[in-house]
């Protein structure tokens, strides 16, 4: 089995960034970092959440959800680049939030993001696991014994929640809800990332062979082949019914797992699927660099809300596939950086006011800085500073 | 913690429907922002769990039925965010000793009142309330039969009292009702039906837009609160 690069985001293409752009990126990163710091509360990173499915504006306490993925990996990227201990300390502090917030069931407290408070959030808990395992790998590589604390937490969640509760033996995949036949490719992909890291850390093949490989195979079966939606990945299935919605953001989040699967299993089908998906996402981009929210069959589209802070994740994922699906991030990067606010945060979206039947713009949700979206641009930009 | 505490674990994993999620978020925000002790009186363990998920500060619990209190305190403290304390004595009809020795609360939350408690709990809450205290009640109307929580067994309450009955009882006990909010308004129901219709005619793009409309109209702040299945009532003491 081929190993993944430990402790930092891997697989980025050759640096394309000019000195001038690098300076603006560095400035953006420091501002984002300062803003994230301002969102800390006892127990972790808090604040409101706005999302496509639902908003959580009335619970604003800490959420142990996918915000930790970008925060921990972002700090690890900064540490890997600068070797300054303060970044590693911040990554560990975020890891400590997750460890302290782990419940007797192995779940993390308030991991439902837009549905907070609640536990068992998907893909949020898997994203936390992947981040903890990245942290563990980085610490282990340095001979720091704290690695086992983070690794144990992540493994406990993977075993007690994902494998014991969500693994569907009949359909040979991870369900999105215990006891309900449901599969969400992007969420499963995040879980595959965590499983492959677990396999690497423990050298136990069950994580990769028994679960990750089967899950990747299932994800590839959710890809559209041919036609105007070639490369797109169905959003989910529920009770055997496929939901025909195609979100560029969520399709992008399938790429890292597919590419890591290709790297680990040397399975060409995964690379092909990733390239197809990347080309589909690139095709949907508007000239200003932004992406639509969701596409449907027969050329239908709901453009709004267009993720701003979340677009960082699309760029990060496309960068991983750039070797095979060439892509110029410059328009999106410029669009993204141009919207950073004086407080350091990024708006969540453009066009929340255009989402309903009765258009009511402007909408305050656009302007809201949300940890679980800002972390995505933070993570992406930290890969570019080195 | 083993699988023995299955009920609390399942209640933690089981997300409430949006009405309950929104109302418990709202109540918890007020509880978290309040000063002083907080008493929660409830008919069901699951409601207690929704509050301990959301509240980092100590909460004192009294259940309509003592056996629920016993079950709750066996498991819940291991899961709670903040401290969870028993206060079953708050519902005792006879409390010996000096009345000034009674515990006093700045916030009293009553979730799903039952008819046989209406003549007691609001009066008792008044005895236990500090000057300026808030009494918050979460009650369901006859439309509760459409809520998933009420289609399962065991039901959250045996003989639920309607918001109108609660308001009458609360006022009779010397409280003044200051605010009412209804959750899952008829407008939201209509938008939800429109969304299903859109899905049926193969327009998922329209369905997604109706979902946003449904979210916009989910809460009823106005006089139509009675047309919602779930209602939040806030009262304060008339003389404070």
What fraction, in percent, of the residue positions of chain A are helical?
Answer: 40-55%
For the biggest β-sheet of chain A, the strand order reads: 5-6-7
Total count of strands of chain B: 8
Which regions of chain A are unreliable across 5 or more consecutive residues at pLDDT < 50? Answer: none
Number of strands of chain A: 11
Mean pLDDT across the residues of chain B is: 90
Greatest interface and its residue counts?
A-B, 34 and 30 residues
Largest sheet of chain A: 3 strands, antiparallel
Over all CA atoms, what is the radius of gyration of chain A?
A: 19 Å
Q: What is the oligomeric state here?
A: heterodimer
Distance between the termini of chain B: 45 Å
Portion in beta strands of chain A: 5-15%
Structural class by helix and strand composition of chain A: mainly alpha
Structural class of chain B: alpha/beta
Query: Whole-number average pLDDT of chain A?
Result: 93
Cα shape of chain B: globular
Strand order of the largest sheet of chain B: 3-2-1-4-5-8-6-7
Count of separate DSSP helical elements of chain A: 14
Q: Measured on Cα atoms, how large is the radius of gyration of chain B?
A: 19 Å
Query: How far from one another are the termini of chain A?
Result: 29 Å
């Amino acid at each position: 089995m081929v190993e993944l690069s430990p402790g930092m985001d891997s697989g980025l293409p050759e640096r394309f960034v000019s000195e001038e752009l690098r300076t603006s990126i560095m400035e953006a990163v420091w501002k984002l970092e300062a803003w994230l710091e301002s969102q800390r509360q006892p127990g972790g990173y808090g604040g409101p959440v706005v999302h496509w499915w639902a908003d959580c504006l009335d619970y604003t306490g800490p959420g142990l959800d996918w915000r930790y993925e970008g925060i921990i990996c972002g700090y690890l990227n900064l540490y890997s680049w600068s070797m300054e201990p303060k970044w590693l300390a911040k990554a560990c502090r975020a890891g400590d939030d997750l460890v302290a917030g782990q419940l007797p069931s192995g779940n993390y407290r308030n991991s439902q993001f837009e549905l907070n408070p609640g536990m068992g959030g998907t893909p949020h808990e898997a994203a936390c696991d992947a981040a903890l395992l990245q942290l563990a790998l980085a610490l282990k590589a340095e001979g720091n014994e704290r690695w086992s604390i983070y690794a144990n937490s992540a493994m406990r969640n993977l075993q007690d929640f994902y494998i014991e509760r969500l693994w569907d033996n009949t359909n040979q995949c991870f369900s999105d809800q215990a006891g309900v036949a449901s599969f969400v490719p992007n969420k499963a992909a995040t879980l595959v990332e965590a499983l492959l890291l677990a396999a690497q850390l423990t050298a136990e093949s069950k994580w990769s062979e028994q679960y990750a490989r089967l899950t990747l195979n299932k994800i590839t079966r959710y890809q559209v082949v041919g036609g105007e939606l070639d490369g797109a990945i169905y959003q989910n299935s529920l009770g055997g019914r496929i939901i025909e919605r195609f979100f560029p953001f969520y399709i992008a989040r399938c790429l890292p797992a597919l590419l890591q699967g290709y790297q680990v299993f040397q399975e060409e089908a995964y690379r092909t699927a990733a390239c197809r998906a990347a080309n589909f996402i690139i095709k949907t981009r508007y000239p200003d660099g932004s992406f639509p929210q969701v596409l449907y069959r027969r050329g239908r589209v709901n453009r709004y809300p267009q993720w701003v802070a979340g677009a960082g994740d699309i760029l990060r994922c496309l960068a991983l596939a750039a070797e095979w699906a060439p892509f110029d991030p410059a328009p999106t990067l410029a669009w993204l950086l141009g919207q950073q606010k004086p407080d350091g945060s990024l708006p969540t979206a453009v066009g929340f006011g255009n989402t309903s039947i009765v258009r009511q713009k402007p909408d305050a949700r656009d302007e809201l800085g949300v940890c679980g979206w800002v972390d995505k641009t933070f993570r992406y930009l930290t890969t570019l500073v080195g | 913690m083993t699988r023995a505490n299955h009920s609390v674990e399942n209640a933690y994993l089981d997300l409430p429907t949006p009405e309950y999620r929104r109302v418990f978020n709202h109540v918890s925000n007020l509880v978290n922002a309040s000063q002083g002790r907080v008493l929660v009186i409830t008919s069901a363990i699951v409601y207690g769990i929704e509050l301990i998920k959301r509240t980092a500060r100590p909460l004192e619990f009294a259940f309509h039925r003592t056996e629920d209190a016993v079950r709750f305190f066996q498991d819940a403290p291991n899961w709670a965010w903040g401290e969870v304390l028993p206060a079953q004595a708050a519902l005792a009809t006879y409390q010996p000793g000096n009345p000034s020795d009674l515990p006093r609360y700045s916030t009293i939350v009553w979730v799903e009142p039952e008819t046989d408690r209406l003549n007691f709990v609001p009066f008792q809450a008044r005895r236990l309330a500090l000057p300026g205290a808030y009494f918050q009640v979460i009650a369901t109307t006859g439309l509760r039969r459409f809520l998933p929580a009420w289609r399962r067994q065991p039901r959250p309450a045996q003989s639920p009292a309607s918001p109108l009955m609660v308001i009458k009882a609360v006022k009779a006990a010397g409280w003044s009702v200051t605010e009412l909010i209804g959750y899952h308004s008829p407008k939201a129901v209509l938008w939800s039906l429109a969304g299903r219709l859109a899905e049926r005619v193969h327009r998922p793009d329209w369905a997604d837009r109706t979902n946003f409309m449904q979210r916009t109209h989910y809460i009823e702040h106005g006089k139509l609160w009675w047309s919602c299945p779930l209602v939040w009532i806030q009262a304060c003491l008339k003389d404070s």
